[in-house]
Amino acid sequence: MQQHEILNKRNLLMVITYFFSTLIFTTVIITQLFKHPYSFLVISIGSCIILIALYYLKTPPKVLQIILICTWHIIVFLFNYQNVNIISFYTFIWVIAILTIYRSYIISIINIVLVFIEIFILNKLSMIPYHSFKSEDHLLLFSFLIAVCIMSIGQSLLIKQIWLKLEKNAIDREYYLNSKHAYLHLFFEQANDAIAVFDLEDRVIAVNPAFEKLYGWSKEEALGRVLPLIPPENEEESKQRKVDLMLGKKYRLHETTDMRKDGTFFDAQISLSPILSPHGNIIGSSVISRDISYIKENENLILQSEKLKLVGELAAGVAHEIRNPMTVISGYVQMMNEDPDSPYYEYTKLIQNETERIELILSEFLVLSKPQANQYAPINLAEALSEVVQFLQYEFQSKAISLKIINEFLNITILGNKNQLKQVFINLFKNAIEAIIEDGSITLQVCKSKDEKDIYIQIIDTGCGIPQNVLNRIFEPFYTTKTNGTGLGMMIIHKIVQDHQGTIQIKSKQHVGTEILLTFPIMTE
User: Fold this and answer.
1) Average pLDDT over residues 20-37
2) What SS3 string covers 177-200?
3) Are strands 265-276 and 441-448 parallel, antiparallel or unpaired?
4) Is residue 216 classed exposed, middle or buried when 0-12, 13-18 and 19+ CB atoms within 10 A define those classes?
5) Which of 362-366, 402-406, 424-428, 503-507 has the lowest mean pLDDT?
6) Residue 524 and residue 52: Cα distance in Å, rounded?
């Protein structure tokens, strides 16, 4: 506690003491216990009102202290000046005793000196009728006066030491509390996790900068409002959590989905705790949350990697264990199919078709086997696309599909494996053809990025589109909605594109069509 605050409180105590002393003076004068004129009563009450006003007008504590000391001495002097007797004379002892509130031996000495000066003045003015006092009264009065003076100085010295020690402890305790508050404030403001405090009505009481950054709500927007942080489909779960919080339950590292200000969702890990009053009543709740979308994404990547590893091991085994016997079977079936008049021709033809399908599956497996050093070479993108279109020309015509190619960059060169890239475009075009029932269109457009470092290839069809649940899993191995599909085609496309340092993005809307965007780095000299 600061010194001026301590002095201010002592001044308040002195004002209160003066107020009650004024009441006593008023009582004894009105009851005629002392024969004082009513002018003294006016002075006493008026000075009391002035002192109270000075305190509430926030007069500087040191100035108010001096005014209080002077006022006490003036009032006591006037009280004795107008009617001196042995009882009223004890008010000088009362002044010395009451001013020890300031716990200053210097003030005590000054008060004692002032009291003796006042007694001396009253004596010179012949206002003290010593002849009317008994000797016992003289002895008792001055004994009390000397005793009070000694006690006043001694008390001031002793109390000052004790008070200084208490003040030091108070200052240390206040410093500790302020430091603790400062550290807590710094933790709240600088924490990486989003922190928010809510009242019992779910109105925001406080948020930290991490909350503003994660959820998109500024502090000014959030305070005092009920924010829509929960997706509609999670409302019931949120209500149950609130009920549990009101029962004192805590949630630690609970995984859920939260919503930002712009309406986007993200995977969140939250810790919920009720806030208790000193009496143990729940008065609010606190939430600490963090975005774990990247963790979920890493988990999906690890799962995808494990699947690719499994597929790669399976592909290697299939290639070695099945392809050789399938070559023998395929050779003999072809020999049997040379005679169309054979009674088994229909069956052998079916066997040959199925063996060719097995060969296709094996070829796709081989792409997913353990990585091998690819021999990349410069590829003219326009020529590669032209060869793919020519290869699929019959299928476009048979389903009355109009193909539109927009490519002003005929000399763009990229580095890669031409056969693999052709396989990518063939598979994408075949998927688009299968998605179009009839009389549809496919548009292929080529353009450059702004910095001219990448080439964009956009393929847009007017097919039936891809459902969202299928689109979310389109690159997973063995996931397919086709009756005769292997579930490896799109994963192979994704792998080839990644091997060529490219990207693939797919947007689709059912009954409208699908848009695929491929990017590849342009080869520089």
Assistant:
1) 73
2) HHHHHHHHHHHHHHCCCEEEEECC
3) unpaired
4) middle
5) 362-366
6) 89
